[in-house]
Structures are given as structure tokens and as C-alpha cells.
Amino acid sequence: MSRLNEADRRPKLRRWVQETASPWLKRIGKPTWVRVVAAGGLLATGLDLAFPIRTTVPYATLVTARDGQILHAFLSRDDKWRMYAELNDITPALRDAILFKEDTYFRYHPGFNPVSLLRAAGRNLLNGRRTSGASTITMQTVRLLEPRPRTYASKLIELLRAVQLEIRLSKDEILQLYLNLIPYGGNIEGLKSASLLYFGKPPALLSLAELTTLTIIPNRPSSLRLGQNNARIVQERNRWLARFRSAGLYDDATIADALAEPLTAYRRAAPQLAPHLARRLRAEYPEVPVIRSSLYPAAQATAERLVQNYANRIRALNIHNAAVLVLDNRTHETVAYIGSADFANTLDGGQVDGVRAVRSPGSALKPLLYGLAFDGGQITPKTKLADVPTNFGGYAPSNYDQRFNGPVTAEFALANSLNIPAVALLNDIGTSTLVATMRKAGFSTVKKQARDLGLSMILGGCGVTLDEMTRLYAGFANGGVVTDGRLTPAAAGQQTAGSRILSAEAAYLIGHTLTQITRPDLPNNFDNSYHLPRIAWKTGTSYGRRDAWSIGYNQRYTIGVWVGNFSGVGVAELSGANTATPLLFQLFNALDYNAPSGWIRPPRTLAMRLICPETGDIPGDSCLNPITDYYLMGVSRHRYCQHRKPIWTNQTGTLAYCAHCRPDSGAVRRMYPNLAPNVLAFYQAQRIPVARIPPHNPACERVFGSGGPLITSPSEGSEYYINPRQPAELELSCQAPNDVETVFWYLNDKLYRKASPQEAVFFKPRPGALKISCADDRGRHTDLRILVRAE
Ligand SMILES: [Zn+2]
Ligand SMILES: [Zn+2]
């Protein structure tokens, strides 16, 4: 029947109402007529309310890639493979076959087909047995929703329910519900599940032979089992294909192909790619039967394979796990998500999601700190920082290799991941600034730890996740704006919100520094023939060698790699450079081999200037050989270089004068290196000759107030426990300015020893409070207090 038929049925109905029904209704009186209709309506509504039909069923959750390809399937709450077929899964060919087989008049009947009901009733009377041929798709759907024993009473209820369903749902929705519920034996329900689990593809890709196969199983799901009774199924399939041909449903060539097609169905495992992300998304969208993720299916499969192979190789070193996150820098979408090397491996905690596990970052946060220092104006890439032993109020960090490099440029310090310059920068900028920036960038553990974080956080003394770290680095690639890593595809034109944590200039300088390849965190035995991707990257190794990080980016992708043991067991061979970087390089080479050779362009606001290479400051009068360096206009510190300072001395250079005591004649102006006490101490310890400023004129009467020696041992306020019978010796040491030759140590205001500033002095403490003072030969002094207790 066409729409035309429906249209001219209406005048007929109207005529019947006008000619027959109305006069009769008039006879029983208008009020009664109204009452009958109202009562009928009320009864129907009441019945519908009293016996609502439940059309929501628990579906198996499907997580798909961005292109709709199914990555992962979960059983439904009632342990069924009941996958939700969307309307676009139901192709015209499939719909035609189903309707032809099950319910030719589905489009036109009100839920039941009176003609076939009558025919079936007649047949039942003649044969004396019941047949079920009269069931429409709607009635079958009712039966699948609410199974009942096969009685005439049930049949009547089903019929009423069918009408109810027709009122509630459209024809397309009823067909969809039917296809989602039809049984395929065992716990497989619905055509989509059968299509995926027996043919390994979604319904839309089924051939005519395959879809015909799937339409005949539900009639006898227990005797026609795919993979077990394939020969019988082919027979049945071909019988129906012949009927399709007679009915002219498909063209002859298509039918001929389908008849010749072998049946290759077998029970496949449900897809299990991206298990960690799939779980994360299911928890986030519990009521959505088909969750579309942002993953690129090929990239996910490649990354999973690489991670698994890599984990197999390092297992011999007692390193068992790895996690990888790949982000698209343009769309901010997650491209690949690998939570562990092998989800199925319960022994090594394979089900832990390493992307979200809280771990120590080692040095991997340093680029952010340098970015903040660029933006704070404290440094430019060539600013000299002191990599020398330094005591930060009792905290004396050392480098990874236990060596010190002396004064180095900021970019060298970052590229080589030196610890002292990083701690010194953090000491300058303040942990609260770093923490606030990290909070802005979405670091949630740090937010909770905020109060307890000290200077050691820049060396790994805080908790971060691979998720957070990778998004941070994507922010460097993205000109300083960090966005939430999207797990689902962005809608067309949709902007992903982000927070600016660094200026574009600072972000560029980080990338510029981290692309340098003459650095120690290239993997050992790094083979030159190996394709080195053009990326900016930074490694991290946590305290105790528990975590190895390597996070890198180019214009297109940011990839974060974590390698370690979920158990927290440290391994001597583990390091960011040797354990995580090889996997990072493999991933870039596999996912982005043909990356365009261009690099992120410097922002136009980033300028160049001449600086003195000794300090990185603007060249002063005595600075030779200036070089160029980047700087942030109006931001970077504009300070004239004072790498050497003028000192007035006597003719022989054995006495120094200040403006106060300089004689009117005979004084000579000489240039001396202007070194911080800790750098001077480092040079002296290394026996590097440094021109010393001569001692100050002893006849000078000026009082020097500030700039006394810095006591480096012991630490202010510290407590010591000693054995009173055999007290261990405590060390007294200090760092003094260049013009100091002698220092005087006082214990509780009594002179203990006269020494050179570089000399370590020892004493045996006694229990009680102790005041320690160190004075220099110009009368400046520093005090501190410690407490000594008997054990
Ligand atoms: Zn200079
Ligand atoms: Zn003086």
C-alpha cells in the first residue's frame, strides 16, 4: 500500500462517520457519545499507564574509534552480547530481507495483521494444532521483550501489547528494537552482535549471503548454530535466496553470487582493543550503548603492538610495564591510549591504567619551570646559571651523575637536565607559582599536595599522571595553551577550551631547547642509522629508578611514554633516556614517519639581542665577544653584565679600597671576576685559578653590614642526635665572597677557630642549644642555631 491509499481511506472513514455512525450516536444522545469516547480514551490511557511496556533493555556497551570501527565490546549488565544497532547499521538490503521473510505488511499494519491472524486461526481449526505464522515483527518484539508461555491468552496480550508498542514507537524504532533482540543462541542477541561475533564486521558491511544467513538463524537458534551446523545453514540460506529471487527482491547476478558464496562464519572473540580507555569511557557514559572515542584505529593498533613488543624485550631487566598516550596537537584529541603493556596480564597489574596512575615525574617537569622563568624575565636561553654545589636552606641536591658543570647556559641546563640550576630557579620563582600553574594545567594530585610541596618537586617530589604530563607537553606544542585531552571526537567547528599557562614565546623557547640532539638523554648505544624523529623531547627518571619518562612532540603529535613497574619496584637499569626514549622514538617513527620537515615557527614577538656570553646579560664596558640570544620584549630582564667588577687597589694589588678609604693618589682600578660565593667555592674546590680580590684595607673604618659568609653546614634549626660518650664530629663550612681571605668560627659567641673560607672545620658538639657564628675579615657575620640531643 502506498501513501495514496492511506490518503483516500480518510474520506471513506469520514463518510462512514457522517452517514452511519453519527445518526446512531445522535440517537444515543451527544452527552453519551462524548462519554463513550472519553471513557474509551481513559480506559486506553489507564491500561497503558497501569501496564506500561518496557522498551528499554540493557545493551552491551560498544566503544568505537573515531571512524565508527568497534574497538571494544562489553557484555550487557545481564551478561548478554546484546549490541545496539543504530539506524545506519540497518541497510535497505538487510531491511528488505527481514521484512520479506518475517512480515511483508509490517509498514502498514497496526501491530497485528488481521488477515494472517484469521488465516492462522482457520488453519488451526482445520489442523487442530497451533502454528505461529501469524506473528508480526511487532508481536515478535513484544514476545522478546516479555516472554510468555504460548497460550491463546498470551497471544491476546501480545496482540494488545503490539498495538501499544505501535502507538509508542515508530516503525523504524520497532524494527530496530526487533533486530537488537532477536536471539542467535547462547548469550548472543541482536543482529549486530551476530554480525560482529560471527563475521567480524558491522551489519552494514555484510554480503547478501551473510545477511540472509543472519536472518534465518533466529527462527531456530538452537539447531542452526553458526560454526557448528554450517552445511544445514547453507541449505536453508540458499532456499531463502531462491525465494528472494522469485520475489524479485534483488537482481539475479547478486543472488547468483550469494548462492555461490561459501559460509565462513565462526565464533570470534569480542573486540578488545584499547581496554583501559574503553573502561574509562564506559564509566563516564554508563547509559550510552555505543560510545564513539576519538582514537585513530590504525594508530591505536600500531601503538598497542609496539608497546607490547617493547615490554617483551625489557621484561628480562625486570621491567614489566609501559603506558603510552598520543595526542593530536591540532584537534586536542586522543589518538592512541595504552594503559599497560598487556591488559590480560594480571600478574603485572595489566589492568592498572598507567595513563592515570599517579607517579613521580623525575625531571620531566623542568621544561615548565624554565618556561615560567622565561616568562618571569629571570632567564633567556643563554643566561648563565650556576651548576655548583648549593645549599638551599638545608636542601643540597646533587646531579643525576653526581658531577657539577660550573656556570652553564639555561638551555644547556635544561637540555642536560641539571638539578642545581632547576632548584635554584624554583627557589627564585617559588613553588607556589609552579603549583598554581600546574593546577591551571589540570594537575589534580599536585592540587591536593600543594601545601606539602617543596623545592624537591622539580626533581620529582610530587605526584603526576601520564595524562597530565602529556597534556602539558601538548600545551608547549600548542603555544602555551593546555587543553583537556579529548577522549571523544570534537564536533565540527567545536572549540576545545584551554588555559594559557605560558606565553607563546616561552613555549617556543622550550621546544627550541628540547630539539637539541647533542645531549646525554639520547639512549645509550644509540645507532646513528636509526631514524631520529625531529621532535622536542624531555626525559625523567624518578628517585629510586621506579619511573622512566620520555615525552616528546612535533607539530602534529604529542606522545607521552612511561615505563616502569606498577608494583613500584625500582630497577637499576631503568632511566628515561635508556628505557623510555627508545619507545618514544619508535612510536614517532611508526605514527608520523612522513612528518613535514617544518618546525613550529618562532612567534613574531620573539626578538634577538646581543648579550655577553659570560652571564647572558647586556654587554657592559668590559665585556668582549658578545653573542646573540632570544629575548621576550618588555619581559626579559634588562641588566648590564657585571661578570667583572672594578676594584680600587694599591699599586701592588695587595690591598683593596672602598670609596670610604681610597687614598687621593696612588690607587689603581683593576677588574676582578665577579663570582657568587658558591661558584667561587666550586672553582676553588676544582682548583681552577681565579683572580682573587685582595683583602680590604685594614685601616678602613667602614662597617660592612650585609653580605657576610653563607654557612653551608650545619643547617639553620637542625637537630642532631649524638652519643655523649663518643660524639661524632660536626662539620662547619661556609661560602664567602671573593674578597674574603679569612673567616672566624664562633661557638656560643666564643672564638673556636680561624680558617680560610674553603676549609672545612670540625668540632665535637655537646648536648644543648648551640649558636654558631661565622665572621669574615671585614667584620660581616652570619649566625645560626642548632640543637644537639643525647641519644
Ligand atoms: Zn660580561
Ligand atoms: Zn674601605
Secondary structure tally, helices = 22
Q: How many beta strands in the DSSP annotation?
A: 27
Distance, first to last CA: 101 Å
Quote the beta fraction. 15-25%
- In angstroms, what is the radius of gyration? 40 Å
What compounds sit in this structure? zinc ion
- Poorly predicted regions are 1-13
Helix content estimate: 25-40%
Structural class: alpha+beta
Largest beta-sheet details: 5 strands, antiparallel
Order of adjacent strands in the largest pleated sheet: 7-6-14-13-12
Average pLDDT level: 87
The gross shape turns out to be elongated
Descriptive notes:
- By secondary structure, this protein is α+β, with helices and mostly antiparallel strands.
- It is 35% helix and 17% strand.
- The chain has 22 helices and 27 strands.
- The strands form 9 sheets. Strands 7-6-14-13-12 form a 5-stranded antiparallel beta sheet, sandwiched between helices.
- α3 runs parallel beside α9, α5 crosses α7 and α14 crosses α16 (419-429).
- The chain starts with a helix and ends with a strand.
- Mean pLDDT is 87; it is low at 1-13.
- The structure holds zinc ion (2 copies).
- One zinc ion binds at residues 612, 614-615, 619-620, 623, 641, 643.
